[in-house]
Amino acid sequence: MSLRLSFSLSLFLVTAAAAAASLAAAASGALPGCPNMCGNVSVPYPFGIAQGCYMPGFRMTCNDTYDPPRMFMNSGNLHVTEITDDHLTIDILIARDCYKPLNLGPDIRQMYVDVTGTPYTLSYERNRFTALGCDTIAINYRTSFLTDYTSGCVAFCGDTSSITNGSCSGIGCCQTAIPQGVKRLNTMLRSLMNHTTSFSISPCSFAFLVDQERYVFDVADLRGFASRSRVPAVLDWAIGSQACEEVKGAPDYACGPNSYCLNSTNGPGYRCRCNSGYQGNPYLPGGCQDIDECADASTNPCAEICTNTPGSYVCSCRSGKAGDGKKSGTGCIRQSKRFPLIQVVLGAGLGSVFLLAIASWSYWALKKRRMIVLREKFFKQNGGLLLQQQIASRDGAAETARIFTSRELEEATDNYSESRVLGRGGYGTVYKGILPDQKVVAIKKSKVVEEGQVEQFINEVVVLSQVIHRNVVKILGCCLETPVPLLVYEYVPNGTLTHHLHDGGHVSSLSWETRLRIAAETAGALAYLHSAAARPIIHRDVKTANILLDKAYTAKVADFGASRLVPLDRAQITTLVQGTLGYLDPEYFQTGQLTEKSDVYSFGVVLAELLTGQKPLSPTRPQQEKNLAIYFLLAMRGNRAFQILEPRVRNEGSREQLEGVMEVAKGCLRLKGEERPTMKEVAAELERLRRASAGAHPWAEGGGDDTAYHSLVDQRGNVNASAYYTSASSGDDSIEAHILLSLDMQR
After folding, report:
1. Parallel/antiparallel/unpaired status of strands 95-98 and 87-93
2. Which stretches of the chain score pLDDT less than 50?
3. Which of 57, 230, 374, 501 could form a disulfide bond with 91, CB atoms 3.0-4.6 angstroms apart?
């Protein structure tokens, strides 16, 4: 047992000795058993001065013939005076060139420092190439791992008053930086005047590479440097020639445990550093040792209890105290035994917030559910199921009549923002919308839809969605999840014809050629609706405000809110009178019988508007001429039609062409619908007039009886009501009947 105890004790002592040696080596920075000093310079690993004590390329020689001993790089003559984690400091020669009569020994006009083939590089951050003198030209050149280069500087001086201590701006002293990656530096020193012009100030020139942190120019150096032969310079060093990313995990990776890799900034290779909370030599096995922040009670960072952990520490407080435990933080504060008011208030507050959040979520969920139910109700109420059936039963309808959700249109119009309003009318408001696919549309939000007309509305949506004509605004679909259905049309960007004819800044903005083309395109679109569509469509509200223009000023007939589909077996339908004063067909107003000739009359007013540039109703004209149709027909009867034309129209249009269009307008404005032309005939004639002079018009023959005018309107312009009713009931198509009916409509 004694033998066994003795063996255990011996083993413990050997292990303890090995651990102590390892700790001592880590503290000194050298490999175990290797010398760690040469004179007064420490030699940390990977450097070494004995065999097996260094990494390849980091051999040092300690010359003990000096007192104290000196260390040299490898076996050369570069004297190493200091080794740090990043740098080596060495002494290098000074180049010198003096005035010949001086007995100062031989000049050294050329010198060099060369560390090619070593893990060292001249530090471009610390070193500066420096020249001293008053007649000095110093040049340095080198080959680096990057490029070759030549550089230098010039120093002159006039007198001592111009030289400043600490300044190397070219007067007595000049400096220049060296590029990155220098391995060899050659220096040449020259004098222009052989120092004769400034002999009294500086009989010599000097050039050297020096650590800028260890040298500050002094005027006395211009003479005193003759007694110096060397100055300190700095070398950067790195392990190998690969970057951290390339060498990590390799067998020759130099960084030990608890350390990290850092790429060299001055050439290839890398260096190692201990992690935060560790210290020591990262190149040694186990070289980075944990720092015990708690070892010294007077300096540790904790206010009371400090617990050391690998690479860090933990601060805590004794029982009865609270806080982060750090001297730099809240420390440790004694806890009182009073009622925990703060905790109670905080708990109650958090509980209230939680209950409020639950209540808000419940309210939001209930509101969302109600909105879903309400949308479903509106969808069914507005004929959504019927529209789905129509789409399913009609070929091609599914691609044209799309059913939008209310959320889609809210997002498209920025929740119906006022900034998105394109226009307002008697039937509703039109908004500009941007769909998720960035397609721009116009969304019409109607004010009201007649009760009992759901089936007709749905049928109109389906039929209109199948209307394909370049001069008819395309209806893309609708939304039925709102109290009043929303219609989605293609977006036409250039405003209405009214805007271009009457709004400020647009007076005479349209040429006669453009106006005639717009008239022909509009007539063609109406003719298509009357005769070429699947079912005849009467627009019922033809006016310049419902004619949109695109960027090319192409006409687009819009706003079918008042439109009606005509049954295939009927030529007219009876409806409540709807339309816009000034454009409204007098016969339709009087009888309530809506025919396609009602659109013809309204189009006649549009033609008069294009010709004269005047509004359909104007308070500035006499009482009986407030209506543009009457004003226009009276002018034609009095052979003064050319006088009321807009000047630009009169100047640009040929007489034959203008007369032809005026005759077309006159034919459209006949009081009796059966005497008006069809829109197909109007479209054909306008298209002909665009290409040729005016000719004969079958509907322009004859006119109403003009003799009754003075019997219907007295000298003051007052209406003879009994004469009007007699005229109207007898079917009189005179202008006077127009006047009386127009005045009656305005009442």
Report:
1. unpaired
2. 1-27, 397-398, 693-732
3. 230
